[in-house]
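Q: Is it fine to ask for two folds in a single conversation?
A: Yes, each is treated on its own. Send the first.
Q: Here.
A: Result:
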Amino acid sequence: MLHHQLRLSQHPTIRERLGQLKIMPQKTRMILKGRLYYPSGCQQFLSEQGERGYWGLAYPDASFEPQQKMGWLTGGRLGDHQDKKQNFHNREGNWYIRVDEEWLDTRGR
């Protein structure tokens, strides 16, 4: 994003079109939204601010509902099945992602 998306307005073709539309940006900036996932039971966080979730190898308790992949971004898109790697959301706004052992194995990568 930093080295491509933000520089698109400098491309001659795009710059010409933005000029025609009179919407040439004066400056560019990037805001990257997301949530950090911590291991289940983690008590030490990088920041107390921002959205966060938890991850683990087990399925979460019954208060969590599986999400479709697009639901991972917004919540509220219930999935109809559970996968090896699945994101879950509960009514209190908590997030949990179930991962498999392969995801944890970083040897040889």
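Q: Second one now.
A: Result:
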Amino acid sequence: MDDKQNNNIRPSNQLRSENTIRPTKIRIVNPTPKTSQALLNQAHRNSKWQEKFNLLFFIVLGCLFFLLLDVFNIWQKIIPGVYTWKSFTLMRIVFLFLVFVLPSIIYILIKPQFASTFNLTLNPLTAILSILIGFPFAYIMALLNLTLAILLERIGILENIIYFGKQLSLFPSSNAIYLIVYLTIICLIPAILTEFALRGIVLEELLLQKKQNRAILFCAAITGLLTFQLQEFIPYFGLGMLVSMLYLYHQSAITTMLCHLTFNFTYHYLIIKTSVLNLNLTNSSLLFIEEMIPTIIKGLIATTLFVPLFVILSQTKQINPLLDSEKIIERHSKKKQPGNKLFNISFIALIILFIIYVII
């Protein structure tokens, strides 16, 4: 009888001991951004006509309308006389409204899920690094742009090398109010509107349809094309690459806005007004590499600042995009939705508008 009781007790004790064993916690890292996954779930619930629309389509329509205003010389009719800071400011405000504000409003009314997934949270360390990284990167891109312009001038494609500060020269330098207006419409507002539209909406939608590396390239190209300036395409293409990667790493549009803001501030103001950083060359007939040595040294200094900052910024996430690039770059390797033909048509139309605007 005792043996039977002992046999009955042992299994129950063993069962209790097994139940008290804590299971090993396995941490599974999901490389797919949360916002992209939320948009993917919502996309399956959209109607077919909603899925066809994309923000780039409305952006191109805004660009086309702005181009028509320029062709019919509307600005001269509103503000007659020579081209001044008033004309430039008016044109800039209308451009930002037609190309970014109005298309974003229309698109969000059609697909409100993009507004609900817009992330405004940001780690303070990431914010500081995002601000700092824009300065050296803008200088690197400006120097690269200048070098390419000199090369194109040598082979006869460009008539003159790039000159920085044409827009700033329109504003009177005697009053600080003019400087505030200039920095607001050139640096601050475009950084906010561009990042909200291109990274917060366009890039997120591209990630549902294309591989991640292609999505980054498309988004960067759109960033460059929307400058409608041949000599600003390469710097802003590079900026588009950088902020697209920052957005994927940190999933916050505030990160990209801060980086874009300091990039604009450096490219459109610091390298013009700061004598140590000034890249404008008074002699357009440089023949010897020795004459370019001071400029090259400035670029090397900017590079030595940019690379460590970018590495530190990438380290603020547990998945390091530099050390684990294969996982990061290919995490969207499989398409989740079929390609959007309207996007491809809109992208080609934007290229055509860019060429037309440069020619005229």
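Q: Anything structural to flag on that second result?
A: Two points. Residues 23-32, 319-335 have pLDDT under 50 and may be disordered. The two ends are 105 Å apart (CA to CA).
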